[in-house]
Design goal:
alpha+beta, 9-stranded antiparallel sheet, 20 helices, 26% helix, binds zinc ion
């Protein structure tokens, strides 16, 4: 038989596009459209106001005017309400839709204009986007039409500009309201009633599945040819002149090839409906609230229509917004949560950045998230769900497990630019040794559309086929929401058990994880294992972009630490009320801003402007809380507030001696360190007088500022590319240079200029501290430039320690392998530590997160990243003034680095009371990271401690003498629930519940322990 099937798929594409799809809707008639554009600042009004049901104070009354088809409606960021009236013939058979085109770009779901449909009584019908542009008026369970055939609907249309278009990353001013740049308004291109053909719809889905599968299967496979043959015959019998009947005939021909079952060993995919929803990104926070309503209403409609579907949603913040702004939708969500079909996942407050937040912030992401889900639904998500964050710290396995979670999910590591990650289902082992079952969906997307190509890619890519046969597929439009569509649901059904494809089943992530984990356990006990952080070989610029986000986040974390500690102390020692509600509110705001496009600095100008204002406000509140707690602890200080910063007491410290060196150099010497700053303002010598070690390698300059041309290939605010780092340009220009003194301290201040930017470096030798400190003030006017400061040190090492949550991660200084080379810019928290076995050195900072560290002959060069100037998505990112501080501590070991890091970041709170709780170290090094009151209002104290060196530590707890002598301590999980030895997680208090003065803590490497202390004497009596 001759074979002429080679063009079948091309024929299919054209016939489907031109002759089948256009028959899906047959126009019935026009509709009457009126519009009202929200005036004033254009910010959204409540639906009940726009519908004339309940006026909102201070907002203009709705004023609907006739609106012609084809007219422009949407100035950037404005909201237009459409009132649409029409009639349908009561005798018209079959489903009838209202079809709208608000001005769609087909390629961008959730990235430009969107709509939300209401009935006149304020009931939400559904959300609108390019792939959800019809509203069922009648049929298939819907009935929005009155007995006389008339209907009225309202559409809240949001004119969100298309910011990430084709080509992508084009610089635009429209990330802020009121931009002067021209904006082409959206136009209402279609508004009509139409008959919907279920048969044509079904044919489209059949052809998509059959054609997609044929395209994926090899031409060596008989199945490939059987599918092509069936498609060819189906197209032969389909005639658009009699589309409905033709569709039936075509489907009959396709039915047998769509009924042959999957192979016995076919891969198994769990498909879960999902909409990745960025809490803010190319739109402000307030828009996400509306996006949620659109996406969730569509998801609920699908759950109503298809009893087999499951939908997942992460981020307690999103549920909370829904509860507050759309209680009717929230009630429907609750109904499906109870049925187990609308599944809260992740258990975090938001899908946070995975590397920048401090340990306590990650704890609170989990505890505020889980408490919310427990309080509203009585359920606790058991998986961490972070599909899109830009890397994952090695502390997360321990934190997830200690918060009661069992599984971890991401797919982002598939974006690596260098290394193909070796697994999709594996045990991820954190820096402390805790393991968590982890899955990367092998379709390598969190927004699948359930196509044959994705399913084939998932099977082909899945790295663990030899021992595992299950994977997860989150499907539904994402980033700006959107979620699953009925077409995805239809394809899902067809792929349930189909020859040549994996078996696709709709069920909950927990059901998937249970089965995938037990499959792995049975196959290989505890293999495969991946140890350490999940470093993302991409988006390395997010550690530096929008420096204000980083500075405010660090400051808020430090202020919260002081505020919770002092408030707990004021409550425990003076009986002052603990400001729980205010702290909760502040925490939730800080957690919200740790979202993976806010803290990383990758949102539009609007988002970062609002964030700076919000941070400013909460920092003031935190200062106020600290002041109030201080006042309760000490009446005297209440009158004058807290005293200003005073230099830490350094008893016996000799004042720094200043002398002139050669060629205009300045020599600073305090008996511990001797620093030589040359005439050009560079540090050419830093000698540790205790060890005699010179820190600065010969011919090198410490504190050299380096400027790089920072022009990313893609993803401007996200990426620092390797080519950027090839050509540093040192800033040598000296505008001024002078010697400065303050008390016993002395230093050199150097002002440098580049272009319109100014950098002032104030370098201090802090007498008696062993610390060489730099204050850096920058007026930054550069675009597409990266500014780093280099700290070359004469230490030969193979790795450097970068602080991360509750510990450090060791990163290679060598570039022998591609993986080592790819870590050319990486995350640090408050310190980087380098050590050659004899001599260590720490560089601590107060606000930075990006650094690179490389071996250089017998030395090491560490460079901290200060500023960038990306132009997309915020063309004015980082313009303005910034301050940074860092310090070099020659001779420091890790415990010294950790303690300096705390001191360097502590807010200016002088005269603290004697510690409420402290550790008396018996062996090793551990410390009290956090003290707070228990979340349940019992008045118990909660103390978080951790081991800092990656070794082991033993310690006793010591409480403030004024605390109840009968204090009892026990160990809890992160949610402050008592834990025993029924898990494989090591306990610090192996002896269980004990009187505090008898308790001994044993901590493993980087182990985090949460201790709860009840100070009621009765508890001790109970124990005896
Ligand atoms: Zn995202």
């Amino acid at each position: 038989m001759h074979n002429h099937l080679s063009r079948t798929l091309e024929r299919l594409a054209r016939v489907r596009r031109e002759r089948i799809q256009p028959r899906l809707h047959t126009r019935l008639g026009g509709v009457e459209v009126e519009a009202w554009t929200v005036p004033d600042d254009g910010e959204p009004v409540r639906a009940r106001h726009a519908l004339g049901l309940e006026p909102e104070a201070g907002r203009a009354a709705p004023d609907y005017r006739p609106f012609p088809l084809g007219a422009a409606w949407g100035a950037a960021w404005s909201t237009t309400w459409f009132r649409i009236r029409g009639t349908v013939d009561p005798g018209q058979a079959g489903p009838i839709d209202l079809v709208l085109d608000l001005g769609w770009f087909d390629h961008s779901v959730g990235g430009h204009c969107e709509g939300l449909v209401f009935t006149p009584d304020g009931t939400i019908v559904k959300g609108l986007h390019p792939r959800q542009s019809d509203i069922r008026l009648r049929g298939h369970g819907a009935d929005l039409v009155d007995a006389d055939g008339s209907f009225v609907l309202y559409v809240e249309a949001a004119a969100n500009p298309l910011l990430l278009g084709l080509p992508p990353f084009v610089v635009t001013e429209h990330g802020e309201k009121g931009a002067q740049e021209p904006f082409e308004q959206f136009r209402l291109r279609r508004a009509e009633t139409a008959a919907f053909s279920p048969e044509i719809h079904a044919l489209c889905c059949d052809l998509d599945v059959a054609g997609g599968l044929a395209a994926e299967l090899s031409a060596d496979e008989p199945r490939h040819w059987r599918l092509l043959r069936a498609i060819e015959e189906a197209l032969d019998v389909y005639d658009e002149a009699d589309a409905e009947a033709g569709a039936g005939r075509a489907r009959a021909i396709l039915a047998p090839v769509l009924a042959t079952p999957a192979h016995a060993s076919a891969h198994r995919i769990t498909a879960v409906g999902h909409a990745h929803m960025d809490t803010a990104w190319l739109w402000p926070l307030r828009e996400t609230v509306r996006k949620l309503a659109r996406t969730v209403s569509n998801a609920l409609a699908l759950l109503d229509a298809d009893a087999g579907l499951v939908y997942t949603m992460s981020a307690a913040q999103h549920f909370s917004w829904l509860e507050e702004h759309y209680p009717e939708l929230f009630a429907r969500v609750r109904h499906y949560v109870e049925q187990g079909r609308f599944v809260p996942v992740g258990g975090m407050w938001v899908e946070a950045d995975g590397v920048i937040p401090t340990g306590e912030s990650m704890v609170r992401q989990l505890t505020y998230g889980k408490r919310y889900f427990l309080s509203r639904f009585g359920r606790e998500p058991r998986e961490m769900w972070l599909p899109d964050s830009f890397g994952y710290s090695g502390a997360l396995p321990q934190l997830a497990r200690r918060a009661g979670s069992r599984w971890f999910l991401t797919q982002k590591i598939s974006w690596n630019d260098t290394t193909v990650f070796p697994h999709h289902s594996f045990w991820w082992e954190g820096i402390d040794g805790t393991r968590i079952f982890t899955h990367f969906p092998p379709a390598e997307t969190y927004a699948a559309e359930v196509t044959a190509r994705e399913l084939h890619h998932a099977v082909a890519t899945f790295k663990d086929k030899a021992i595992a046969s299950h994977s997860l597929l989150p499907y539904g439009y994402g980033d700006g929401g959107g979620g699953p569509t009925r077409e995805m649901a239809e394809r899902l059904r067809r792929f349930a058990d189909l020859e040549g494809a994996p078996r696709v089943i709709s069920r909950t992530p927990a059901e998937f994880f249970e089965e995938a984990e037990s499959e792995l356990r049975e196959a290989g006990a505890l293999e495969p294992v991946y140890r350490g952080e999940l470093y993302l070989e991409l988006h390395r610029g997010t550690l530096t972009s929008q420096a204000a986000m980083k500075r405010h986040n660090r400051r808020c974390e430090s202020l919260l630490r002081a505020a919770e500690y002092l408030s707990a102390a004021a409550s425990a020692l003076r009986g002052a009320p603990y400001p729980r509600e205010e702290l909760d509110e502040i925490w939730r705001t800080v957690l919200l801003h740790q979202f993976h496009d806010i803290l990383p600095g990758t949102s539009i100008s609007w988002v970062h402007r609002e964030a700076r204002d919000t941070y400013q406000a909460i920092e003031e509140r935190l200062h106020d809380l600290i002041k109030r707690a201080g006042a309760a602890l000490d009446g005297e200080r209440a009158e004058g507030g807290l005293p200003p910063f005073t230099a830490p007491e350094r008893p016996g410290a000799a004042a720094v001696e200043v002398a002139d060196g050669e060629a205009g150099a300045t020599v600073l010497d305090d008996g511990l360190l001797r620093v030589v700053v040359d005439g050009g303002g560079h540090v050419v010598s830093l000698r540790d007088l205790r060890s005699g070690r010179e820190v600065v390698p010969p011919g090198r300059r410490l504190n050299e500022l380096q400027l790089f041309r920072d022009e990313p290939v893609r993803w401007d605010a996200w990426d620092v590319d390797r080519h950027v780092l090839r050509h540093p340009r040192p800033l040598d220009d000296v505008t001024s240079r002078r010697v400065i003194r303050n008390g016993p301290d002395a230093g050199v201040e150097v002002v440098r200029r580049t272009g319109a930017s100014t950098v002032t470096l104030t370098m201090w030798l802090r007498a008696g501290t062993g610390r060489f400190e730099t204050e850096c003030a920058v007026d930054w006017q550069e675009r597409e430039r990266l500014l780093k400061v280099a700290v070359p040190v004469r230490i030969l090492a193979r790795t450097a320690r970068f602080e991360t949550q509750y510990g450090y991660v060791e990163r290679p200084l060598l570039t022998n392998t591609a993986t080592e080379e790819a870590m050319f810019e990486a995350a640090m928290h408050r310190y980087v530590h380098v050590d050659d076995g004899d001599f260590g050195l720490a560089i601590v900072n107060d606000t930075m997160y990006g650094a690179d560290a490389r071996a250089d002959g017998d030395s090491t060069v560490v460079r901290l990243s200060l500023l960038r100037g990306a132009r997309f998505p915020d063309p004015r990112a980082d313009l303005g003034t910034h301050t940074f501080r860092w310090a070099v501590l020659p001779g420091a070991d890790v415990p010294a680095a950790v303690e300096a890091a705390y001191a360097f970041n502590a807010p200016d709170v002088a005269g603290l009371p004697a510690p409420l709780v402290q550790l008396e170290l018996l062996t090793g090094h551990a410390l009290v990271d956090w003290v707070k009151q228990a979340d349940d209002g019992s008045g118990d104290l909660v103390v978080r401690v951790y081991e800092t060196r990656g070794a082991r530590a033993g310690a006793r707890l010591r409480c403030h003498e004024e605390l109840d002598a009968g204090a009892v301590v026990w160990e809890t999980d992160l949610l402050e629930r008592e834990i025993g030895g029924d898990d494989d997680l090591p306990l610090a208090l192996a002896e269980g519940r004990r009187p505090v003065d008898e308790a001994r803590l044993d901590l493993g490497p980087f182990q985090v322990a949460t201790l709860r202390i009840a100070t009621h004497a009765s508890l001790k009596e109970d124990l005896q």
